[in-house]
């Protein structure tokens, strides 16, 4: 490989790393702002204009807190926990294609840290490693509540990973590739976005993504009302900061993952027309690069929407009970995703892409029928 | 006893399939929260913007002067007795000849101190005073303490200044309570 190509590649990796950190930092700010607005408050607005320096203030606070390790904790594992969580969170953004490609001279460099043909598997591997961070941390704290949180996290992540994988298989069957770039390229036209061909798979995937990120309504591992602080009860200072930060990075990565798997990644309607117009008016190379930049911006817009959606759901839906969580995972999502795979396969036999709508239609009909047949619930006012 | 007519009986009926799928109700909930996202926020940016707290607010103490500018307090000590927090202390002195334009009564408070850390702003001193000498201003707050010295307010901070007279009945004032120029100068 040429030196310039190597340099540009390294630059892209660094930029993606930086962007991931920056977005995670500002997600903490956005989270509080969104929470405030959804609850008719203003959110943080004292540090800097509109409170924009709030994340820096928070980080400063985290750094200056006492770094405490409980006497009975197993010290090295206790330190390893947050490091693992952070490491795995940061690793997963490597394979996400952020844009088409940059051209200069005779080189064409894809806007992606590493292009591997098993991108989806890579993400799966790294994400399932992520639970070790939580488990090791929770176990090493030598505290009942932390341990309970860690156990919950482990069983929840394992349960939902199955449904997550199964819902993805339908997409893999349609694309015939494990490369994220290939999956994105597959969704070039608007109505071929996987959310339109795989509506059920999308809903299952979204739900499981919430569970994998330990976000409400699935934030049982850190549920304050039952477990004090869950797996990070004993953590303080920047170790706690790492855990919280890893959660936001995970959120960013899953948003990116969802938008590239189901919402066409850096594609947008009429992008070929835009690309042709730009290359026509500005020359082959500049036009192409600008078209790539627009695609990247669109991709980030999608990511931001999903990050917002994560927060929006968090401040809307209450937490599941643990048995409800397990019921939903094992008795609903897994059978549904298996059905989804079967129906997609049947559709692919006859070259029809939209067969999974069948399941959706049947389910809607069943739901309407059953609620029509159900006895009207009368909300009788309480008598004295 | 019926407290409200909005209460609903708990029903343990079987959920319908639509309810078991959660999605319709989730969509409903999301719609409700996003509506709040765009609502006007009732927040008042406190230190910059202050609300008018009404004519009954109990704020900064003031030792009133009468119409001719003489101090009304006669150092009877009833306020100190009434004070539940024992915040008030004073030293009485006899009025000398030639001081009639300074003090209204023959005995006056040479030293009058209120410990603002002890004071709970209950207003009992104001009620106890037979001479209408002490009031808690409704339009000014005691500023936040930064240091421990200067917490005990002496007469220099308490006695009403002639250019900054305090009137209680001024209910049309609807502005920043800490702005002294907004209170009408008269007694
Ligand atoms: S307001 Fe209450 S606590 Fe304060 S000085 Fe008067 S009587 Fe004492
Ligand atoms: S302020 Fe009123 S009650 Fe207190 S000592 Fe003076 S005259 Fe007496």
TrEMBL record, chain A:
EC number of this enzyme: 7.1.1.-
Locations listed in the record: Cell membrane; Membrane
Keywords, sorted A to Z: Cell membrane, Membrane, NAD, Oxidoreductase, Quinone, Translocase, Transmembrane, Transmembrane helix, Ubiquinone
Any GO BP annotation: aerobic respiration
Transmembrane segments: 6-29, 76-99, 119-141, 162-184, 248-270, 290-313, 333-350, 356-374
GO cellular component: plasma membrane
Pfam family name, one: NADHdh
Functional note: NDH-1 shuttles electrons from NADH, via FMN and iron-sulfur (Fe-S) centers, to quinones in the respiratory chain. The immediate electron acceptor for the enzyme in this species is believed to be ubiquinone. Couples the redox reaction to proton translocation (for every two electrons transferred, four hydrogen ions are translocated across the cytoplasmic membrane), and thus conserves the redox energy in a proton gradient. This subunit may bind ubiquinone.
Family: Belongs to the complex I subunit 1 family.
PANTHER family: NADH DEHYDROGENASE SUBUNIT 1, NADH-UBIQUINONE OXIDOREDUCTASE CHAIN 1
Protein name: NADH-quinone oxidoreductase subunit H
Organism: Fibrisoma limi BUZ 3
Gene transcribed to yield this protein: nuoH
From TrEMBL, chain B:
Predominant location: membrane
Occurrences of domain 4Fe-4S ferredoxin-type (ranges): 64-93, 110-139
EC number: 7.1.1.-
Gene3D superfamilies: 3.30.70.3270
Superkingdom as given in the UniProt entry: Bacteria
Cofactor(s) needed by this chain: [4Fe-4S] cluster
Function per UniProt: NDH-1 shuttles electrons from NADH, via FMN and iron-sulfur (Fe-S) centers, to quinones in the respiratory chain. The immediate electron acceptor for the enzyme in this species is believed to be ubiquinone. Couples the redox reaction to proton translocation (for every two electrons transferred, four hydrogen ions are translocated across the cytoplasmic membrane), and thus conserves the redox energy in a proton gradient.
UniProt-recorded name of the protein: NADH-quinone oxidoreductase subunit I
Gene source species: Fibrisoma limi BUZ 3
